[in-house]
Predict the 3D structure of the following.
Amino acid sequence: MGSDRLYSKGRVLGFERAMRTQNPNVSLIQVEGVQTTKDAQFYLGKRIAYVYRAQREINGSKLRVIWGRIARTHGTNGVVKARFRKNLPPKVFGASVRITPSLNHVTNGRPVNPYSGFDHLRFTVTNAKQAASYYCTRLGFEHIAYRGLETGCRETAAHVVKQGEAIFVFESPIHPDSMQDMAAEIARRGDGVKDVAFTVKDCRAVYTKAIARGAKSIKEPEEITDEDGTIIMATLATYGDVQHTLIERKDYKGVFLPGYKDTLTALRYKDPLQSLLPHVPLQFIDHVVGNQADGEMNPIADFYEKAFDFHRFWSVDDKQVFTEYSALRSVVMADPEERIKVPINEPALGRKKSQIQEFVDFYGGAGVQHIAINTNDIITSVTNMKQRGCDFLTIPSSYYDTLRAALVNHNKVSKRPVIEDLDVLQSLNILVDYDENGYLLQIFTKPLEDRPTLFVEVIQRNNHNGFGAGNFKSLFESLEMEQDIRGNLTDMEQPSS
């Protein structure tokens, strides 16, 4: 169904002048005669249009929206929070808007999202048994399934761990003459995330569309059956050597996937440490961040938009995220219902090598930089992870002095004032970001291996769908201190004129 003839009227509202300083390219748009809902869609008659595709024509000047989402209902007029590609001049506020939405996956006037969410992450590592044990011991995961020699697999061993709905798989080659490509990749890149798997409703349909739009096939759709049911799987390539496996689970009842057995049955063993260590209430994978080389962010974002029907949900550039030494650009890609979020980062030119470039150098190219795991109780999660021996970045005390002053006004006007004790947050090095609707709490581990590559973020959202833009400067400064200790905060080569 085309979208070039669908229009709606609206006007640009002030968004506290785009939060005064941080985001002058953000605004609210009131859409006339449109009844909005709490999710990221609005209605035009019986048709639903996704805001992220909208084009705005303001006073004859076309300003492209990078992303948009429902902020609140306003009678019969919906209010959409939108980020524009460039800063909005003051004269734009109050101006009339023509909205040209585009429909995506629409059936009988209703949108059909082919994605259900993240399915699991698969790591390729030198020693899967030890890696799985580390994540169980330090981060509070539980070992749930296994595939290896004991289950009839002669080439690799794979250990599956789970916490809440977050599932990680650690896989290693187990014979000198088998899986040589996997072994060579591990030798070059070190341990890392090889596969970011998505649960889908129709594997063949998603795969076929992606291939038709330029995606590279790793494995064609295959139906696999065991005593617990049937699944359909296919695998596509994305940035670097990372893959996306599409998994249609149907009514599969097994512990994980066909070929895997539950840990107690397969290994006849249960780790006694689990009952001795404090519980970590992590819930699900919030987002998975991919780092790229300079100049690769937009091509990768365009690939997700074209091949997977993702949209640009959020973005920042080097004018917003920078320190004395370095900067980055980032765009967050998301599926139509924003269950899957994939931030794409690239380094920007600075005096010193940024932490994005450090990752690319030590990983040998593009790859997954960090995994954000959602929790509804970050204080308990971080406290218990620390008791388990997990090591986090240290945030300067000056950050909390500034935060205390800023929150005095925020808590008076916000719909969701920060209720956590700031002294406790400071003692745990937890960061706070906020807007008029709510706030988020976040913290980052140090790299989980010897190479300064993969780390984990723990995040708690309180009516806030951002990614901590207000914390980027403090976070970057903390990361730069760690880089300096490693001897990697070095001068960047400047481009020749």
